[in-house]
Amino acid sequence: MNKLMLVLKSGLSKEELCEIFDPKFPFILIESFEPKGLSKWWQTDLKFLGTKFKNLSIRHMIFDIQTDLEGFKKIFQLNTPHYLSIYQFDKPIPDTLVPRFLPDNNKERILKQNGLKHHYLFNFEFLTITSFEEEFLTEIKMNEEKFGVIG
């Protein structure tokens, strides 16, 4: 995979950051998403395994999200954590594919077989993009003034 690291431009809006994502590939996996980054109890309703639980107090809720690009943009606009691992695929992500559990020596091959095109790792002001498509990274490099400094 090809890799590009950016030091994101100060003041870059989330709308502008969303322009980095490839519109050709609609399947997005947000891995280990934690909607509330704080270690604080919050109230919510949950529905799982066919049962709805009302008015629960929860914390440290972490889950994977599969959505399309538009759904991702809505999630990204929320007060999301400063660390996000986002995969962009050309087809739906299979139930059994959990990237963090893949063996390192086969991870790239397995992800590619399952349609991975790009991986974005946001870590505060840094963004690392890995991609099977070198042309995609070249386009981002050409927009260095817009997105940030290439590291």
Question: What's the helix and strand layout?
Answer:
Elements: E1 2-8, H1 14-18, E2 27-33, E3 42-48, E4 51-58, E5 63-67, H2 69-77, E6 83-89, H3 107-113, E7 116-123, E8 126-131, H4 134-142, H5 144-147, E9 148-150
Antiparallel strand pairs: 1-8, 1-9, 2-5, 2-6, 3-4, 6-7, 7-8
Structure characterization notes:
A hairpin with a 2-residue loop joins strand 7 and strand 8 (126-131). By secondary structure, the protein is an alpha+beta fold. It has helices at 14-18, 69-77, 107-113, 134-142, 144-147; strands at 2-8, 27-33, 42-48, 51-58, 63-67, 83-89, 116-123, 126-131, 148-150. The protein is built from 5 helices and 9 strands. It has one domain (2-33, 60-150). The longest helix is centred in the middle third of the chain and has 9 residues, at 69-77. Strands 5-2-6-7-8-1-9 form a 7-stranded antiparallel sheet. The model has no long low-confidence stretch (mean pLDDT 90). It is globular, with a radius of gyration of 17 Å.
Briefly, what is this?
This protein has 151 residues and is α+β, with helices and mostly antiparallel strands. The protein is built from five helices and nine strands; from the N terminus they run βαββββαβαββααβ. The strands form two sheets. The chain has a seven-stranded antiparallel beta sheet.
